[in-house]
Write a structure and sequence with these properties.
The protein is of the alpha/beta class. Helix content is 41%, strand content 12%. The strands form 3 sheets. An 8-stranded mixed sheet has the order 3-10-9-8-7-4-5-6, with helices on both faces. Helix 3 packs across helix 4 (57-69) and helix 15 packs across helix 17. It is globular and about 75 Å long. Bound molecules: pyridoxal-5'-phosphate. Residues 126, 191-193, 217, 259, 264, 292, 294, 322, 324, 329, 334 line the site of pyridoxal-5'-phosphate. Residues 126, 191-193, 217, 259, 264, 292, 294, 322, 324, 329, 334 line the site of pyridoxal-5'-phosphate (PLP).
Length: 488
């Protein structure tokens, strides 16, 4: 095998829906992005690669032609085929190229290390089971709405959200999350970060700071940093956010941004004592608590705790929900429950921002809820995820033995596999995750979910979405791929 063939991970999965020639293209792009294949490197000959992969020469040729068309490869006649010598920097990902551990990994690099793209690659955290979504029912509802289009639905939608959907959300939150709110408090948005934007525009002042969970949801973190908010990392322990530490670090922060039901990513629940302490602090400091309740519908042990908002007697909690987990993220629909004292401000703002999410999709979701499909779907997904969670955790235990600690989570759609330190000290989870991504998995190292620099105390591990792990064979295959990435 040539050095170039070594650099390529050419594992082809014949059960994948994606055709073999596309898988070959992906592998080449990943190897180039990771720096394993460099501009000017010669790539394997068509026939040799076809034999190695046990596939037709034409299949490899199709892949090479696409890569040439896209500018990744250059054919130089009898001399062979080479990685293009003029590749733009943007196709070469530095975080994957240099996987070596450094305690002071700069933030931009850690952000890149956590970037798992947007597609449905295996193990992507937070992606619901796409195979189990009732697509027929959904398309029937969308089609019916599309066919019966009336003039009213052609105009600008209500910027605060489609009225009947706001009503359905308010009823649902009262029944299932203990959140008592009126439809006027519910503002429909296009995803959690759009909700945060509304909150910041409505309530933040220049130079404001916010407590942010450490580790915490990196997409929200990146958005808030971009928006100019000063983030104060507050540690998480077994009881969730350490409120005392928050008060010591910054007693006058304007916001605390938290995931109380199912901490993202560690999965712990904010204890009742901490909830009371957090609310008490917010009341005394005149601050706002942003509750990100993204996947609390899925709970596998005991009853779900009601939302933090249900305890909010002083009107200091801004509740954020999303349809990304309970339906699907391509929908881009989410919502904010405004504190009563901020309703007028939010209303004024939504009018000045954009005109709100498309009417058609909001109406179809309202129908989906009204006709009972939503409740049925959630019930089915709870059972399905409980099963997939168990199967995947078992496969990981088998593949990693005592190298890692794997506890099936009590809720949600992802689990955290914690790497045990080896003889050389803490394991470099960023390098392992980069290798796993090169192999086609959408995983991120746990230490990239931290805002602060990596230290010996930073937990090392992997955040793994299990909702799309369809059966034991698939679980075993993915666990083996992770193990190979771990072994290096
Ligand atoms: C912690 C957390 N909050 C919120 C969301 C929802 O984001 P969105 O509504 O933009 O899809 C996610 C999705 O992955 C998440 O992991």
């Amino acid at each position: 095998m040539t050095p170039t063939e070594h650099a390529l991970n050419l594992e082809i999965d014949r059960r994948k829906a994606s055709p073999i020639y596309l898988q070959i293209c992906e592998r080449f792009k990943a190897a180039i992005a990771a720096g394993h294949l460099k501009p000017g490197d010669r790539v394997p000959a068509l026939r040799g690669l076809a034999t190695q992969l046990n596939t037709a020469r034409g299949t490899v040729e199709t892949a090479y032609n696409i890569l040439v068309d896209e500018g990744y490869l250059q054919m130089r006649g009898a001399a062979g085929t080479f990685v293009s010598s003029s590749l733009p920097d943007s196709v070469m990902c530095t975080s994957a190229r240099k996987g070596r551990e450094r305690a002071d990994v700069p933030r931009s690099r850690q952000a890149a290390a956590a970037d798992i793209g947007h597609d449905a690659k295996p193990l992507r955290p937070g992606l619901p089971a796409l195979d189990a979504f009732p697509r027929k029912v959904w398309s029937r509802l969308v089609m019916r709405r599309a066919r019966s289009v009336d003039l009213a639905s052609l105009t600008y939608p209500d910027p605060a959200g489609y009225g009947p959907l706001r009503e359905r959300i308010a009823t649902y939150l009262g029944l299932s999350r203990g959140v008592e709110c009126t439809p006027e408090q519910v503002f429909v948005t296009s995803g959690y970060r759009a909700s945060l934007e509304l909150v910041l525009r409505g309530l933040a002042k220049p130079d404001d700071s916010a407590w942010f969970e450490e580790p915490g949801y990196f997409l929200a973190r990146n958005f808030l940093v971009e928006a100019g908010l000063k983030l104060v990392p507050v540690p998480i322990d077994h009881d969730g956010l350490d409120v005392d530490a928050g008060q010591t670090l910054d007693a006058h922060a304007r916001f605390a941004i938290v995931t109380p039901s199912h901490q993202s990513p560690l999965g712990v629940t904010l204890s009742l004592a901490r909830r009371m302490k957090l609310l008490d602090w917010a009341q005394r400091a005149g601050s706002w608590v942003v509750e990100d309740d993204y996947d609390s519908e899925f709970r596998y042990a005991g009853r779900p705790l009601p939302a933090l908002k249900s305890l909010d007697v002083n009107d200091r909690v801004i509740y954020c929900g999303t349809f990304s987990k309970v339906l699907f993220p391509g929908l881009r629909l989410s919502y904010v429950v405004a504190p009563e004292r901020a309703i007028a401000r939010f209303e004024q703002l939504t009018k000045s921002m954009n005109a709100g999410p498309p009417h058609l999709l909001q109406a179809a979701v309202a129908d989906f809820i009204a006709q009972g499909h939503f409740a049925r779907h959630l019930k089915r997904m709870r059972a399905l995820y409980a099963e997939r969670r168990g199967v995947f955790a078992q496969a990981l235990v088998k593949a990693f033995g005592d190298r890692a600690s794997i506890e099936p989570p009590s809720g949600g759609m992802h689990l955290v596999m914690l790497f045990n330190a080896d003889a050389n000290g803490p394991v470099d989870d960023l390098a392992i995750a980069a290798r796993a991504r090169e192999a086609g998995l959408a995983v991120s190292g746990l230490s990239s979910w931290y805002l602060g620099a990596r230290t010996k105390r930073t937990l090392r591990g992997m955040v793994l979405g299990f909702a799309n792990v369809t059966d034991a064979a698939e679980a075993a295959r993915l666990a083996r791929m992770l193990r190979r990435a771990y072994d290096g």
